[in-house]
Specification:
The protein has 182 residues and is α/β, with parallel strands linked by helices. The protein has one domain: Metallo-dependent phosphatases (Purple Acid Phosphatase, chain A, domain 2), CATH 3.60.21.10. Helices cover 23% and strands 20% of the residues. It has 5 helices and 9 strands; from the N terminus they run E-H-H-E-H-E-E-E-E-E-E-E-H-H. The strands form 2 sheets. A 5-stranded mixed sheet has the order 4-3-2-1-9. The protein has a 4-stranded mixed sheet with strand order 5-6-7-8, with no helix packed on it. Strand 2, helix 3 and strand 3 form a beta-alpha-beta unit. The radius of gyration is 17 Å and the shape is globular. The mean pLDDT is 94.
Length: 182
């Protein structure tokens, strides 16, 4: 039975991300090997992975070489460091995705959003970009490598970490911003 995984912000080949995010590697080559090992230890060839952006900052040939080593069917949610030429290397590439996994509606975007399609009806938002530096809003979660130790994760692993979004409570707590009177 195939499974669906999520990850973001691998930054393959990016030396400086090791320092920026305190990753436990001595070099980008060591980090790449570690990320590939973790990916392939979890993801089978029949599985699907949604990578929520910032796969690599390197040229398309570098991305292609890494992608060939990774198991599964790979879909890219485009991040701010993903080059346009890389998009053809993936099963699909989009700025966002709205999908249902195991009966749960998900909205995928590289960036954390304050509100997303379906939020008021229970849709969950998965994102990357912030490398664990923002606490997630109710109904959302950062699926980035720096949050999950470099491991791609399933929805079943993510769900217990998400604070439920309560639309009724949110309506009661709503305040409005008004800088000028009518």
């Amino acid at each position: 039975m195939s499974r669906i995984f999520f990850t973001a912000d691998s930054h393959f080949g990016h030396d400086r991300i090791i320092e920026y995010c305190n990753r436990p590697f001595a070099s980008a080559a060591q980090m790449d090997a570690g990320l590939i090992q973790r990916w392939n230890a979890r993801v089978g060839v029949q599985d699907t992975v949604y990578h929520l952006g910032d796969f690599t900052l390197k040229k398309p040939t570098y991305a292609q070489n890494i992608l060939r080593q990774l198991h599964g069917t790979k879909h890219l949610i485009i991040g701010n460091h993903d080059h346009a030429a890389d998009h053809t290397l993936w099963a699909s590439a989009a700025l966002a995705a709205d999908l249902t996994v195991n009966g749960r509606r998900l909205y995928l975007c590289h960036y954390p959003l304050r509100e997303w399609p379906g939020m008021w009806r229970g849709a969950l938002h998965l994102y990357g970009h912030v490398h664990g530096s923002y606490l997630p809003l109710p109904g959302s979660m950062d699926v980035g490598a720096d949050v999950w130790g470099g491991w791609p994760v399933t929805l079943e692993e993510i769900l217990p970490t998400i604070t439920p979004y309560d639309a009724d409570q949110a309506r009661q707590q709503q305040t409005r911003l008004q800088l000028q009177p009518w």
